[in-house]
Structures are given as C-alpha cells and as structure tokens.
Amino acid sequence: MATYLKKRGFLILTTPNAFNFNRWDEKQLEAWGMQPIEKWLTQKQLKELLFPYFKILEMRTFISGYGSKGILRLINSSKFNRWLEFLKVKQLFDSITLKLGCGLHIFVVAERI
User: Are 110 and 9 in contact (CB under 8 A)?
Assistant: First the structure.
C-alpha cells in the first residue's frame, strides 16, 4: 500500500479491532453477519505493519459498547453503564476506554516516510 502513495502522502484507514471482536460470543458474531474479513488486527499488529513505511500521526478506536467477554463484559454491562450515567461520568469513561483500544474499529492517519 505504501507504493501507491508519494512520499509524505497520507494514509487514512479504518479496520475492525481484533481486541474487541475476539471478545464477542458466538451469538453476537452471528447477529453481526460475519463479514468476509480474513484476519482482524489489533492496534499493535497494525502499528507493526505500518511502521516500516509510515509515521503514524493518529491511531484510536471508535464505537464503544460492543463485546461481551473479558473486560468488555464489565465495561459494556448495562448495570455498570447505568451507574456511570447516574454519576454523570459515562461520556468520560467511554472516551477513556476508546483511547485504551476497546472500541469496535481502529482509525489510523499515517504519513508515508
């Protein structure tokens, strides 16, 4: 993909976040429709793919509220989220979890070096 860009050209991409999708149960995956994606990537894997050719300017995840296993089971639980809303910190909490890489998709802006 780097060969298609001039030096200092920009790459903007989104991709499913493996951290999130790997924490879905079978019922969620079936409801999603299992799109034909061969391999989901984590932020670390995506950085490793881009690193030799690109300077990453921004990488974040977006769309919270998905996933039902591991830590996502807790942060996406309806009881926990009601408490966050009651305490008026849900928006802040969602922002932090997205910055920590818990979102449904990864967004990247990178510059070809």
Answer: no
Q: If you ran DSSP here, which 8-state letter would residue 51 be given?
A: T
If DSSP codes are grouped into helix, strand and coil, which group holds residue 47? helix
Output the pLDDT for position 37.
66
What range does the domain containing 70 cover? 2-112
Q: What is the DSSP letter of 5?
A: S
Cα–Cα distance, 65 to 99 (Å, whole number) = 14
By DSSP bridging, strand 10-16 and strand 54-62 are unpaired
**How many structural domains does the chain have?**
1
pLDDT digits (tens, 9 = 90+) for 74-90: 999 999 999 999 999 99
DSSP 62: E
Residue 3 has pLDDT above 90, yes or no: no
Please give the Cα distance from 2 to 73 (Å, whole number): 37
